[in-house]
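FW: tagging you since you asked about this chain on Friday. Here's the raw sequence from the shared folder, copied in full. Didn't touch anything.
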Amino acid sequence: MSKREVRKHIRKVLNTLSDARLESQSTCVAEQLRALKCYREASNVSVYLSMPKEELRTLQILANAHSDGKRVFIPRITLSKENSNYIGDRSDHLTMLLQSEAQIAQLRPRGKYALLEPQNYEPSLDAANCGGLDLVVVPGMAFTQNGARLGHGKGYYDDYIKRHEIITGRRPVLVGVALQEQILESLPLEGHDEKLDYVLVATKS
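HL: got it, structure written out here
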């Protein structure tokens, strides 16, 4: 199948999942992440705010990260002209902004994708200006257990990881978090697609 066909198939499957199944799998993966040595040793972590249906829910991961004393950075799609440090030729790009639990609780949907994101880009909160990230929890439409990932098709994360390496001189640990229904044997990937260090998936029920 093509990337487009895989996304269409996975989206259809995910939209049939019950809230109970989403919650149970999300809780299981949150505990798996907490047990990873690379997570325990990380200070600066990025965690996405999940959509209601099409991906693993990250509220427990966020709560754990704050409880564990991590500095938590939330993805924001930022216009490239807003960020004087931007490297590249995209009109918009991903930034990761430091947010407290209280700030996250107040976030509202913004932008063309109606994602929960910080309303404003503040350079002082940008991970690139805060020592960089140690670990990134990466969303996706589909994964393989050996680290392949198919995103939503906009290339935001692949672009971000490359820029993070250029700016900070290091690559954060990339952890994909997946529902069982998102795991496939193989994916139609290209050379620019970043491979993940870990893919966490709930154990079979």
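FW: The mean pLDDT is 93.
HL: agreed, and The CA atoms of residues 51 and 132 lie 25 Å apart.
FW: great, closing this out.
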